[in-house]
Model the fold of this input.
Amino acid sequence: MAAPSASAAGETSLRELAALYTKASVLLTTDSGPMHLAAAVGTPVVALFGPTSPERHRPLWRGHVVIRKDMDCSPCFRKACETVECMKTIRVEEVFEAVRERIESRRISR
Done:
């Protein structure tokens, strides 16, 4: 059975997005402002890092998961890349498992 999901891209103000995140079980995202907003309102985050550095930009507080592959070229901080290998090497299965663990962890702590 699939869990419900939604995209609110371009449809909310920051306040509305923060309110929406308080209702979410987990946020799967890349390194972004919304990632930090979700962490700030206490929503567990699974963040995918490629060209940026989790040492500099990871979500604050505990309970979040950062997925990043060590590559010679990363972090490069580039906005565009021909290969995007730093993101392509992140496996769907590991992302799924991280999201599942965050959801289970949140259920247990409630």
